[in-house]
Design a protein that fits this description.
single chain, alpha/beta, Isopropylmalate Dehydrogenase
């Protein structure tokens, strides 16, 4: 039986409804799963949804002005409520996996959400530290920190956090089929600190974490300067890169040639969750210009994770 996938349509004033409906017109998506949508009825109808496409769980926002796309409290509240409902239903076993269309952090702030974005909300709801990672073909990159100002990065990095993320990344790669994953650890400073001349985080934090991880059976290399780490990964010399901050992963990932759209997924939760690796794109919302490729890839990837729940449960903690 095909896995059932619940898709939250994201901010109703962004491109989420459009890419969701367009993706569900893909034969590959419909071969992979049984889709369901949670989102604003008016936005989804405007995007072309009909009951014949898939079932809809309505989470409606009042008085939306589709002629003025952008972050609003109403849009933020609706997208937040859809995610909260979806998590409850997936955790209760009604669906096999969750796919989330983009939400607006600004809209969630206007709606006084308990967390700024999806991953932070999942961390709060699940009471555990998950892993944010991205896959694009054979390219796999995971984050130690997520949406964090760079000025706070050095202070937030510590051995315990790096080890937690490395164990999660190792298990995620195993779930993708890598039997003994080789992970490249990116350095923080230029030239990996040049022996402490340009910064001491590599010596004081990264190397001690790496040594302990190796003793516990993980295969890692590094810490490597970002350019060298990415060059080696794109040449097939590692199965994944553990990056220390957002742009260290996302810029090379999105610019690397080939591989199709990137998929953003969260590992370490009690359920599979994926999303397209882009935002709400308010600037092109409701112009019928949004590319659904990332959403289609995210749905198919979620179905892949959900097809073998025993495998998922085996690996998701470590």
């Amino acid at each position: 039986m095909k896995p059932s996938i619940l898709i939250t349509a994201g901010d109703p004033l962004g491109i989420g409804p459009e890419i969701t409906v367009k993706a569900l017109g893909s034969a590959a998506v419909l071969r992979a799963c049984r889709p369901f949508i949670a989102g604003d009825t008016a936005a989804l109808k405007r995007a072309g949804w009909t009951p014949s496409l898939c079932p809809l769980l309505p989470v409606d926002a009042p008085a939306l002005d589709f002629s003025k796309p952008g972050p609003t409290a109403a849009g933020g509240s609706a997208s937040l409520k859809a995610v909260l409902l979806a998590v409850k239903l997936v955790k209760s076993g009604f669906f096999d996996a969750l796919v989330t269309a983009p939400v607006s952090k600004e809209a969630w702030a206007l709606a006084r959400a308990p967390a700024p974005a999806h991953t932070d909300l999942f961390r709060l709801l699940e009471k555990r530290e998950p892993l944010m990672l991205f896959s694009r073909g054979r390219v796999n990159a995971a984050l130690v920190t997520e949406h964090l100002p760079l000025k706070e990065l050095s202070r937030r990095l510590n051995k315990k956090l790096i080890k937690r993320k490395a164990f999660l990344f190792n298990s995620a790669l195993k779930a993708l089929g890598y039997k003994k994953p080789l992970i490249g650890l990116c350095a923080l400073n230029p030239h990996a600190g040049d022996g402490g001349v340009i910064g001491k985080e590599e010596i004081q934090t990264l190397l001690p974490a790496l040594k302990e991880l190796k003793k516990e059976g993980l295969r890692l290399s590094g810490p490597l300067p970002s350019d060298a780490a990415w060059a080696a990964h794109l040449a097939g010399k590692s199965d994944g890169l553990l990056c220390l901050y957002h742009d260290q992963a996302l810029v090379p990932l999105k610019l690397a040639p080939g591989g199709g759209p990137a998929v953003h997924w969260t590992w370490g939760l009690s359920f599979p969750r994926t999303s397209p690796a882009h935002g709400t794109a308010f600037d092109i919302a409701w112009e019928n210009r949004a590319d659904p490729g990332g959403m289609a890839a995210a749905i198919i990837f979620a179905a892949r994770l959900a097809k073998n729940p025993l495998l998922y449960k085996k690996y998701f903690l470590r």
